[in-house]
Amino acid sequence: MIMTDKNVAKQNSINRIARSILLACALLTIFVTASIILSLLTNTVSFFRDVSIAEFLFGTQWTPLFADAHYGVLPLIAGTLVVTLTAAFIALPLGLSSAIYLSEYADPRVRKILKPILEVLAGIPSIVYGYFALNIITPILQTLIPSTEIYNAASAGIAMGVMIMPMVCSLSEDALSAVPVAMKHGGYALGATKLEVIRSISLPYAFSGVLSSFVLAVSRAIGETMIVTIAAGARPSLTLNPLSSVQTLTSFIAQASSGDNAHGTTSYYALYAVGMLLFLITLGMNIIAKRIILRRKGAHNS
Question: Domain tally for the chain?
């Protein structure tokens, strides 16, 4: 079909409109991100006018809503670390193992059934996981380990691990399915077993996708609010014991935001300081993961 000048002009106009819409969407994303960072930054600066950075980062007492206020964030960091590590211990190996099974071993008919079932778990509201942790997981832990407290980091971490496992599984399975079949056949031609092909060819080739799924899942665990608010407790304590009650960075924000926290006070600005710390933690994780991926690509290219 021969394109007339009129058709060419119409097509160019459509392309310009589409380009403008896409540019506007990209600029809107940048604007929203910059606005969030600016809001966090300005209020965090106000917080550090009253509290020193050293006290905030290295203090061991977190009582911002008490008359005798202390702003040492280490107890919140410890609680977040325990819950996140518990969730990662559950989600990462199970999610990756499920992805390997679905991409390498499962029959196509079985894959069509199992993958949607796993992805349904990601659609369950996090508040449901919170009550599941409190009413199901915690009694089981108390039966096995009587010293387990009613609100504890372990039950919240286990529930969170179940919640983020489908994310690890789905993204890792997509990365493994993208491995060229010719590379696998080359491994089989050299006499490698399926397990050896997975370990030596598929996983190294899909490394960036698998690592991305890990980072996204752990970032999701760090930023989760409802599960830890319901099941982990609200006692900021500097402990790494998963069977005790803890308070995480996000659960403090949820607790303080719903209470009587006067605008302009130091305890009010503490919300933004904690939010900025969360932002920097997840940003740091993404930067480290990106550097690992780039270094690995550079090593392969050389």
Answer: 1
